């Protein structure tokens, strides 16, 4: 399992460490007794439970201070617990734990870290019985086949100290990265807020104001004679609904006032095929991009029919409109030869830069509108009319370009920082496993001759145990005599 360990480290079979039962207890038979219970849920929450016997529904095993508990359940998850009672109540544990005794040979934390290593977890996970998560278990016979390396006690102490010192440093780094991500999120919100309040870039009095853009849109729609768009259909923003003040050259409008098309994908989803034309659904709309890794396929005939209703094109904004991820958006950048299902809405709006419209949908005030506009009939749904009713700021075209460029610049830098944070987190994750692997290969701390060897420690312990056994036997003879 761990190769090339020092010659001074003998190997001890886990069979010699697994505790013989200290006895079982049925807590329900002593309903008023208080126990300190080492349960699997207790481990996950970080501390044993102090609970009355009447509240415990099954038999438990007695455990004692200093034992090391290894969970039988899904051993791929590291669950190793040192028994350190916090009270004077009897300590009991779930029978889902296998109890180890250190036998004066191992330091409990050294044994705990060994049982937590990835090679041990992988080995035990390969030997489980049962299927799926909490139904998978490893039995005691399998665990007893583990071979545990035994350094001298002084070296064990130095190994444990080095592991814990490294873990503490990793913890500090992880806390810093968590805080950094929180600050990055707040900074992003602040940048978006400034952008759509007119505070990120300066206004230019030479820019065509939003009111004129809106006049052009309304004039063009009034001329349409195909019946699909009429001036009477427009929903205008009311003064009392304005979320906040914006520059005078801007205007608050309903998205339906300025969008040339708000539609969604096929309501009667075509039959899927093993190959053919691509059909995207909500799962393919990621945060800021389209994923073509896991797409559905439909026939050519169904594809053509579907695109008669909804025909994506470069620059369109696609938004998830059904399900748990409502509001998630992406802009169609290049590839547009696909069809959509009903769970995806398409917004085509020449009056707003498509990238800017995407950023707009990331703001808190748009997210709140989207959340408040959802309807639930089995699963959450954002209807097309509700999308058209969203209040958005209409910004002069030239200023849109300046805002988009500023946002892209700042958010690109943020994206780079986030990638660096993710890399640090990955290094921390790998680093912790690496430290354990190095520790149990004998390379984490140097060997010191004056500390002796694990072989000598083992001989000494066996000698003491033999002397204690002889002493007990002599005592029994005297008693009989």
Number of helices: 13
- Kindly estimate the percentage of residues that lie in beta strands according to DSSP: 5-15%
Question: How many individual β-strands?
Answer: 21
Overall mean pLDDT stands at: 90
Indicate the low-confidence ranges by residue numbers. Answer: 229-234
End-to-end gap:
52 Å
CATH top level label of the largest domain:
Alpha Beta
Description:
Mean pLDDT is 90; it is low at 229-234. The strands form seven sheets. The protein has a five-stranded mixed beta sheet with strand order 2-5-8-3-4. It has a four-stranded antiparallel beta sheet with strand order 12-18-15-16. The longest helix is centred in the middle third of the chain and has 43 residues, at 153-195. The protein contains 13 helices and 21 strands. The protein has 481 residues and is of the alpha+beta class. It has three domains: 11-150, DNA methylase specificity domains (Adenine-n6-DNA-methyltransferase TaqI, Chain A, domain 2, Alpha-Beta Complex), CATH 3.90.220.20; 157-203 and 402-445; 208-395, Alpha-Beta Complex (Adenine-n6-DNA-methyltransferase TaqI, Chain A, domain 2).
Characterize this entry briefly.
The protein has 13 helices and 21 strands. By secondary structure, the chain is α+β, with helices and mostly antiparallel strands.
What are the key terms here?
single chain; 481 residues; alpha+beta; Adenine-n6-DNA-methyltransferase TaqI, Chain A, domain 2; 13 helices
Topology of helices and strands:
Elements: E1 11-13, E2 24-25, E3 34-38, H1 40-45, E4 49-52, E5 60-62, E6 68-71, E7 80-82, E8 90-93, E9 97-100, H2 108-116, H3 118-125, H4 140-143, E10 147-149, H5 153-195, H6 210-223, E11 251-254, H7 255-258, E12 261-264, E13 277-280, E14 296-298, H8 300-309, E15 317-320, E16 329-331, E17 339-340, E18 344-348, H9 354-361, H10 364-373, E19 375-376, E20 380-381, H11 384-388, E21 391-394, H12 397-439, H13 454-480
Helix pairs in contact: 5-12
